[in-house]
Structures are given as C-alpha cells and as structure tokens.
Design brief:
heterodimer, A: about 290 residues, mainly alpha, MetI-like fold, 2 domains, two-stranded antiparallel ribbon, about 75% helix, globular, B: about 290 residues, 12 helices, cell membrane (chain A), membrane (chain A), phosphate transmembrane transporter activity (chain A), Phosphate transport system permease protein PstA (chain A), MetI-like (chain A)
Amino acid sequence: MANTTYEKRIRPGVIAVRALIYTVTAAVVALVVAIIAFLIVKGLPYINWEFLSKAPSRLDETYGIAPMIINTLYIVLLSLIVSIPLGIGTALYLAEYSKPGKVISAIRFAIEILAGIPSIVYGLFGLAFFINALKAGSSGGSMIAGALTCTLIVLPTMIRTTEEALLQVNPSYREAAFSLGASKLHIIRTVLLPCALPGIVVAIILSIGRIVSESAALLYTAGVDYTMPANLVKHVAEPGAGLTVQLYLYATEGGSPDWVPYAMAAVLMILVFIINLSANIIAGLFKKKVSIN
Amino acid sequence: MKTQKVYLYNSIFKAIVFFFALVTVLSVILIGVFMIVNGGPSIAKVGLKDFLLGKVWNSANEPPQYGILAFIVSSFYSTFFTVLIAVPISILVALAIGQLMPKGLGTVIRAIISLLAGIPSVIYGFLGIIFIVPLVQKVFNLSSGLTMFSSVIVLIVMTLPTIISVSETSINAVDKGYMDAAFALGVRKEYALFTIVLPAAKSGIMAAVLLGVGRAIGETMAVMMVAGNIPQMPSMLKPVRFLTTAIVTEMSYATEQTRGVLIGIGLVLFVFIFIINSIFHFFIKKAGAVNG
C-alpha cells in the first residue's frame, strides 16, 4: 500500500527528531534536579539552630548566619514598604485610569527599561545617588540605600504582575458596581483589590524572591558587614551583608571552613524553593477562581 | 455635599496613582541623567575614542589608562557564544513542553525549569567554582580554570529559563490552523513544527533571544566568580574581564577619577540595554502583528 511506503520513508527522521528533542529536554531537567539535589544534600546536614541563630565569630569559631538573615529580611521589608504602594498604585493607574497616549507609552517604556537594566548598574546608581549624593546612611553602605535600590529593581515585576491580576477581574463585577452608582475609588477598594488580591500576593512574593537572590546591586549599596546589629532601628543607616553577598565573599575570599558556603547555598535554595512554590500555588488557585467566575 | 466629597477623594486618589506611575519614568530619567552627569565628564576627559577603543586598562598606572575595548569585546564574545548554544537547546525544550508532551508532563517540566530562574546568581557562581572551573582546568590542561569558557557555560545555564519560557509562549501562540492545514495535507507533526510553527514564531523567538542577550550582558556576580577577571582581549581559554565585572572589581578601592570612569562603563551598559530593548520592542510588536 502507498501508505506503508510513505510511513517507512519518513519514520527514521521522525524518530530521530523526537529522540533529539526529548534527550535535550531530559538533560535540562536532569541538570536542574542535579543542581538542587546537590546543594541541598551537601548543605542540609550543616544547617542547625546554632548555624541559624549565631553570628560569625573568629573568637568562638562559630559560623552562624543570623546577621545575614536579619539583613536580608531587613532589606526585603524596607523595600516592600516602598515598592508595594508604588507598584500597586502604578498598576491601578495603568489598568483603571490611563487612556492610550504619549504619557502611557512613556510609562510602559520606562517599566521596560527598568526591567532590563542590569543589577550592577542599579548598584552603581544606588551607590552614587543614595549613598554619595543623598548621604543615606554610612559611606560603606546602609540598609536603607540597599532597600531603595531593590525597590527600583522589583518595581517592574510588582507593576506587571499586579496589572495582570487587575485585568483578570471579571469586567461584569466592575460594570455591576458602576451601574449601582459606586465611584471608581469605591470600586477599586471594595471590588477590584479584593478580587485581585491573590494576584497581588503573587506580585509581592515574586518581588521578595528577586530581592533575596539579589547580590550585585547590594554589594556596594547595603555594604558588607557580618556582625550582629546591636540596634535594629539604628541598623537602617548601617551596612550589612545579606545571605547572597556573604556567600559570595565566603566563596571567593574564603575566611570560613569549606562547609559554610554549602550550608548557606542550601538555605538560599530552600528559601527560593519555598518562594517559588508558594507563588505557583497561589497563582494556580487564582487562575481556577477566575475561570470559575 | 457628599457627592462633592466623593468626587474630591476620587480626584485625589487618581492624582496619587498618577504620581506613582510617573515615579517609574522619573526613575529612568534620574538614572540616565545621573550616569551621564557622573560618567560623562570622566569619559570626556579620557576621550570617547580612547575610552571605547582603547586596548589598555590600567587604573593604577600613572597616568592611568582607561581603555575598555577589551571589556566590550569580552562581553559580546561571551554573549554571542552563550546565545549560540542556549537558543537551539531552548527551542527544542520549548517544542517538547508546549507541543509534543502531554499537557500534565509539560506543566511539571515547565515548573521544574522555572526553578532555574529563581536561583541566585551567586549560587551559579559558587557551582561554577566547585564544578566547572576545576573541570575546565583539567580538560584543557590549564594553570587555572577561571576562563571565558567557564563563564559561557554558567551563562548558558542561567539564560535557559528566560529563553525557553519566552520562546514557548510565542510557539504556543502560533495559529493552530496552520498545523491543522499541514496535518490535512499529510505532513508529520515533527516536520510541521520545524517548517511551519518555528518560522511563524520567528519574531517571538527573536524577542526571546534578545532577552537572553540582555541577561547575558548584564550578568555580574556569577561570571565574576568564574571568569578570572584579567583585563585583556578575550579568548576562550583565557581569563577575562567583562563590562559588568570591571565595575565590581574596582569600585571598592577606586579613586575619584576611576570611579567616574566606572560609572562611564555603567553608562555604556545602560546604552547597550537601551538599544537591545528597543529592538526587542520592535520584534514583540511584529510578533503581536503576526499572531494577533
């Protein structure tokens, strides 16, 4: 039959193409799994309460990471305080108030550019602007300078994700509220924001992930210091290395036993994993909820 | 009275969110102006030609030499090879996830690969130090494995998730009618993917490539840890210094003059990213026109 000769002629090529595609995909997946498994297996045994709760001390020969955890959290929180209102406000403007025109194109282009600027350029700008020009904190870096630099970095993520969530809210909700005579502000407060809340939470979680893994922008804005902050309020103007920056220093300059970078990498991987997973789960639930609507 | 108050609140709120939205524009302008004001005079002092085309960088010399040609060429060299290898891999993976695999399996693999995007740069650098650098040293019998080659390997892994996810989106956005028409003519799926779907998704894939280029040029800490960091013209098995790592290396101990030049390097990076973004926009628009 004509059909069988056709099949015979084409099949080897088809199999080869499929084999190639699947082999490459399997290799990439294996690589990801290997990276994660390696870091967790190598680092996990060293993670204990002492490691998480103590500061590194040459005298006591302890290598805790408590100050780095505090610094990372400090920068995350401080940066969120600024970036959440800014990001959600901008998203509301883009989704609810803006009319197509030059201003809107400028804003969208600016978001695009902000998203593309490399971390190190932000770091450079943060050092020159926040620390040298505005004198925000000590000249060796400060939590506030690091946090403000991170704010610029996460703004695009925050705005885009929130805007997407706002646009997914069923338009009939908005229309129903309008027809009842509700004002725009009232609708935003009582209908849009509550409905888009899971999407906004995802935006915040993704931003946290970005800040936790940031290093180049923080090296010269938040500075390097691994001592335990004495006063959390005054710490805003003091330098301090987060987990990533300290891992970089240990990995390149030494100053710690070999196991310390492994343990820090494992802590970071677990953090990133939790952040990713929770963002995925909430986004998944949100999609389901919206599609039911 | 009440209506007036509501109207007032609404206007105030609108003004506030408008101001917030303007912050993004102001930030970009501020960053641009600041870099030009701080970096411009230093570049002018060195001379634009000597700055961009000068082959020697030695900030400790008297007088210091600030030629960044080696950094520019190194950045493009590494980016070129990164993209050259990462793009074909990404397209194959994108085809597998979006077109060939059952939906459930595709979703799982997509989620696994997206984990790569969340891993901090310093961890990639750390893994590079542990695995790639010693391996490169052994395989090529070098005195040190801190080379351009090691950075390219790290960059390939780092750009994969970005290029995969954007090209998958554009591949999946191709009109299903094309495939149906091909099937009706008796064309095999595998054949149709390469001859019909990929060409139709061309603009979106170009956008993915540009995004990968942006990531590779801008990556700092990971390559800082594996590139060896010596300012010289690039070669695969030699230590190199990139635009990004040049800034990190000398920032902490830079003199006033050197600091200005480093900001000048940041300005060069900023301009490159601006150009890449503009081209990216062009392709996104084109992709939208094709698929929409």
